[in-house]
Amino acid sequence: MATEQVQVALAGNPSCCEGSNFGPLPDFPQRLRAAGIDEEDFKMVLQTCKDNEMAKLKAIGISFPVICVAWPCMIYYFSVVINPEEGARKFNSKYKEKNIKCARVMPGYSFVFTVPAEVAAVATPVPANMVREDDDQVAKLEKLQTMLEKGLVTQEEHDAKKAEILASM
Questions:
Q1: Is the same domain home to 10 and 93?
Q2: Is the confidence at residue 20, as pLDDT, over 80?
Q3: Which residue range forms the structural domain that includes residue 159?
């Protein structure tokens, strides 16, 4: 199955040293909406990343002296408890059946949403002779109706000829 990728990035440059500034969440891409993704799920992925990254930055800034002493606990805390990719994991679980995936692009704060490629509907060509025959039959019916309206044929003749034309379609 062919797929397309839509990359979305959180704006801003968070840093525990320079202050934290992520900015607002990006707009929901129309391509993701067309793929059947709920806007709330899209926002959940990005907001979870944003919240967990902010928690990680605050924890580093507050607890740097503790890290020096209890670094094994801090490694566990930063890699398991505060997980910026938790939203993507929940998203992937929900959209697995639709073959839609979300993955964080490292380094940075971007996500790639992989969705099934749009497949343009291919119209089945109509044989040229079939179109002409139907057009001829319609033209005959229109001419027959005009002849009835002008009094050139009777109602009985009109009905008989109309039935003949319709039967040949």
A1: yes
A2: no
A3: 128-167
Number of structural domains (the chain) is 2
Helix residue ranges per DSSP H, the chain: 30-34, 39-69, 71-76, 86-95, 128-149, 155-167
At 56, the amino acid letter reads K
Check whether 137 has a pLDDT greater than 60. Answer: yes
Looking at the domain assignment, is residue 121 inside a domain?
no
What pTM, to 2 d.p., does this model score? 0.55
Residues 52 and 103 in one domain: yes
The string of pLDDT tens digits covering residues 86-119 is 888 899 999 998 889 998 887 777 888 999 886 5
Pick left, alpha or beta for residue 159 (phi over 0 → left; psi -120 to 50 → alpha; otherwise beta).
alpha
Mean pLDDT of the chain: 76
Indicate whether 58 and 86 sit together in one domain.
yes
